[in-house]
Write a structure and sequence with these properties.
About 50% of the residues lie in helices and about 20% in strands. The protein is α+β, with helices and mostly antiparallel strands and about 575 residues long. The radius of gyration is 43 Å and the shape is rod-shaped. InterPro entries: 7TMR_DISM_rcpt_extracell_dom1 (IPR011623), 7TMR_DISM_rcpt_extracell_dom2 (IPR011622), DGC-Regulatory_Protein (IPR052163), GGDEF_dom (IPR000160), Nucleotide_cyclase (IPR029787), Rev_trsase/Diguanyl_cyclase (IPR043128).
Length: about 575
Amino acid sequence: MRDPILFFTRLLLKCLLPAFALLLAFSARAAAPLALVGDDIDLWPAVTLLDDPGHTLRLPDALARRAEFKPTDAPYANLGLNRHTVWLRVPVDVPADAPARWWFTIDYVALDDVEVFVQRGAETLQRVEMGDHLTVAERPFPGRTHLALLNLPAGESLELFVRVRTTSTMIVPMSLRQPVVVSQRENAFQMWHGIALGIGLCVLAYALTGAIANRESLYVWLAWSSVTGILFFFSYFGLAQQYLWPENRWLVQNGAVLLMLLVLVGGFMFAERALDVGSMHPRIGRAMHVMAALMLLAAVLFATGVIDYHLATDISAWFGAWPMLLSVTVAIRRARSGDRAAAWTIGGWATYTVGAMTAMALSRGHAPATLAMQETYMVCALVQIFAWVMVINVRVAEFREEAAATRREHDRVLLISQTDPLTGLLNRRGLQLGLQPLIDQSAPGRLTAVYLLDLDGFKPVNDLHGHDAGDELLVQMGERLKGVMRANDLVARLGGDEFVVVATQLGGEAEAEVVGHKLLACSDAPFQLTHTECAVGITVGYALAAGDGADAAELLRRADAAMYGGKQAGKRRVRRAHVEVTPA
C-alpha cells in the first residue's frame, strides 16, 4: 500500500520547491575557514562530513582522516534519518581582536549524543558532551537546546569537530554566538512560545468549561488535543525538558514521540465527532474509533518499553494523515450541503496538512532545517485549533437550534393536547391542569368562581342551518366569553355547547354574581353567521371556592348541578349551587 505520508510529502515538496531553492543555496559546501567576524556565526556553510556507519571512530581516528571529510549536498543542516554516527568538521579563524568566549549552539532538541572538540592541530583544547541522553541538570548549560561555552583563543586557526549520533532525524543547525545574541534569541523564542502556550491554555479552559457546561464530547476531545498539542510542541522545542520534566531521562528523550501518538488519538476522535462520520459511514466511523484506540495502545506500549523509539516514530508517521484521509470525503459532502462546521474542518485540515508535510519533509531530510521551517508545524497546528474552536461554535449553535426546535415542537404538541381545536379555548385537559392551582389561591377577598355555561337553543341551529353554522356560532361565543373576562381568567370548552369560565381575584359573592350576569349577557346580541343570523341563550351555574368546594372536580360538579337547576327553572339565568340569582 502506498505510504500516504510519503505521497503528500512529495506533493508538498513539489509545491514548495521554488521556496526551498533559495534555502538550499545555503547547503553545505567545502569552504575556507570561517572567520569569526560578528556576533552570530552560522557554521553550516563551512561544514564537511565523515560518515561512521559502524560507530567505531574516535577523535584520533577522525583527526587522522581529515582528508576524507567531504562537503554534503543535504539541505541546510538536515542529514535526514541517518542511523550512522556522523563527524562534522568546521575550520575557523579567530581574529586577534575577536572575543575568546563563544556559545556553541545547535538549534534542534532531539539529538541523542553530541560531542564537541576544539582542536588546535593535534591538541584538544576542549571537549564538551551534550545530547538528550543527559538530563537538563547534567548538560553543560541547563537550557532547552544544546548549548556549550567554548574558549577559542584569539588569533588562532582552530577546528571544531562535532560527533553526532541520534535515533531521530539528524538536524544540526550549528552556530557560534556571543552571549548577548544567545540571550536575545532565546528571550524572543521564549516570548513567542509563551504566547502560543497562552493561546493553547485559553483553548483548554474554553474546552473544559464547555465540556462541564454542555456535556458534549466535542469539548472533551478539543481539550485532549489542546493538552497533548501544547505538550508535544513544548517537548519538540525543548521547553518541556527545561521546565516540566528536566530530571526524567526517558521523557527528555522520548516525550515528543509519546505525545505525538496521543495527539493522533484526539485527531481521530474529534474529526469523527465533529463530522458525525458514523451516521453517514458507520464503518469509517468505527474505523476511526479503532485507530484512536490503536494510537492509545501504541502510546502505552511505547511508554512501557514494549515497542521501541523507531517503531513508535514510524507508527506516528504512518497514521499521521489518516484522521484527515478517513474523514475528508464526509467533510466535503457535508460542506457541499452547506455544513459550515465541515467547511471549517476542511480548512483546519488543509492548514494542518501544510504543517505536517513540512515536518515530514524535515524528518525525512528533504527540507532545510531553518527555524522558520521548524516553526511552521506549530503555527499550522495553532491555526487548526482555531478552526476546531469554530467547528465547536457552529456545532453548539446547531445543537441549541435543534434543542429550541424540539422545545417548540413539544410546546406545540402540548398546546394541541390542551386546546380545543375548534375555538382555540382550553379543552377539558387544559382546564384540569390550570383550574386546581387557581382554586388553591382562593382566600377571603380573593375568591375563585367556577362557571359552567350551556347554550339554550343551540340544537335547532345545527338542525336548521347545519353543523358548519353551529361551529361558527361556538367560535363566536368563545370570543365573546374571552372578551368579557380578564387575561388571568380561564375560558374552556368542554365539548358540544358547554363552556367553563374560571374567574379569579373576586372581592366577594356579589362580584361573583356580577360576573355571572356578564357571562349571561354574552348571548343577548344575535350571532351574525356567514349565511344567516341566529339567537341563542345561556344558562349559567357556578360555585365558589372554598365555600362551595375545595377541589376542581367538586366545584365543577356543583356548578353543573346549579346549571342543570337553572335549565329546569326556565333557562337563561344565573344560578349558584342551591342559590338562584334572577336575571338582570
